[in-house]
Specification:
The protein is α+β, with helices and mostly antiparallel strands and 132 residues long. It has one helix spanning 2-23; strands spanning 40-44, 50-55, 61-65, 73-76, 93-97, 103-108, 114-118, 127-131. It has one domain (2-131). A hairpin with a 5-residue loop joins strand 6 (103-108) and strand 7 (114-118).
Length: 132
């Protein structure tokens, strides 16, 4: 009986420890739409007021900030399309969260190019930079 109680207490300790580690993570799980032919996706951030709106064809991203007091707005993160013309196909780009609340990785799912995406209310602290 003591062995069973010891084993159960050990199992419970591991379960609590694993759950605590999972809750400390800054990344959110973004569930991708099963439809690869959509033009826009919203990605949740760890900030309750902020989403990132991705144009999956061109890689253009807006920081979308909603509000309960009527001050909702969008900030542009990149002004230049990363794909255009015939190369701008739905589902080409996808965002992946990182452990840093303000940073995501943007992946071109066709040719493998990647960018660091940083959102922020301050203009000089937001942008999209190619990772070589």
């Amino acid at each position: 009986m003591k062995k069973i109680l010891f084993a159960l207490s050990l199992l419970l300790t591991f379960a609590v420890h694993a759950n605590a580690q999972m809750s400390e993570s800054n990344t959110r799980i973004t569930a991708a739409s099963p439809d690869a032919h959509i033009n826009y996706r919203l990605f949740q951030t760890n900030n309750r007021w902020t989403f990132l709106k991705l144009d999956t064809r061109t890689g253009e991203i807006n920081h979308v900030q909603y509000s309960i007091d009527g001050n909702a707005m969008q900030y542009r993160l990149n002004d230049t399309p990363l794909a255009d013309g015939g190369d701008a196909v739905p589902g080409r780009f996808f965002l992946y969260p990182t452990e840093n609340t303000y940073n995501f990785i943007l992946l071109d799912q066709i040719d493998g190019r990647v960018w660091q995406v940083q959102w922020n209310i301050d203009d000089d602290k937001r942008g999209v930079w190619r990772i070589y």
